[in-house]
Amino acid sequence: MMSFKNLTLIGTSHISAESVAEVKRIITEKEPEIVALELDYKRFHAMMNPERKLRLADIRFLGVKGWLINLIGAWAEAKMGKLVGVKPGTEMKTAVMLAAEHKSKIALIDRDITITLKRLTKQITWKEKFRFLGDILKAVFLRKGPEVTFDIRKVPSKKVINKLMKQVKKRYPNVYNALIHERDVHMAKSLNKLIDINKNKQIVAIVGAGHEENIIKYIRKVEKSSSSQNKK
Fold it and tell me: Which of 4, 115, 122, 207 fits a disulfide with 211 by CB distance 3.0 to 4.6 angstroms?
């Protein structure tokens, strides 16, 4: 958890019971006027309407590569969720439920998933694609996984997250840029606007573990830039 002015930022794992408990505790204690989520409207709608599955018709919005990436990602997250007994996104749904109880407003701060997937498919190189395929084959046939290991039932420590981020950034620089860096900047800008408009109101934001530090860093950067311009 990190704080900045009237913002409390919670880093969660989307399949962790520990994260669900943390979200309940913070929102109950803070009783925020605004609950911000690392979601865009499309993902929020899909989360609140789980019966709506990804369809072939969605290719026209996501593109073939984007559709496949989304399909594989959803399948992998669901599989891990079954292993730990927590459905993906439970902590986000819990936040929505608590927001309704406390009459808090919901703010969706993430970039449109369609834009993110298009950015990913445009930026990813063939080298990264072959490297990704190689990593999957190693994991399946040689049982050789990542150098960093952790309990998926819990939120990874900052040390573990930093190591994982460094590995992704090194092996898949364009994937890191599209899925992490660009979205962190977008979410920081969204939160910065919320902070400016709601100066006397408590804001609790829930994002994936690993996003918090960069988001706070970019918020500070935006604020510093705005202050410098106002002085001129």
Answer: 207
Per-residue model confidence as pLDDT tens digits over 66-109 = 555 555 555 445 544 454 444 667 888 899 999 999 999 999 99
Tell me the residue range of the domain where 150 lies. 2-231
Quick: pLDDT tens for 162-209.
787 888 888 889 988 998 999 999 999 999 999 999 988 999 999 988
Secondary structure in 3-state letters for the chain: CEEECCEEEEEECCCCHHHHHHHHHHHHHHCCCEEEECCCHHHHHHHHCCCCCCCHHHHHHHHHHHHHHHHHHHHHHHHHHHHHCCCCCHHHHHHHHHHHHCCCEEEECCCCHHHHHHHHHHHCCHHHHHHHHHHHHHHHHHCCCCCCCCCCCCCCCHHHHHHHHHHHHHHCHHHHHHHHHHHHHHHHHHHHHHHHHCCCCCEEEEEECCCHHHHHHHHHHHHHHHHHHHHC
* Axis crossing angle, helix 158-171 with helix 126-137, rounded to the nearest 10: 120
> Quick one: what percent of the chain has pLDDT higher than 90?
34
Domain count, the chain: 1
Whole-number average pLDDT of the chain? 79
Is-above-0.90 flag for pTM?
Answer: no
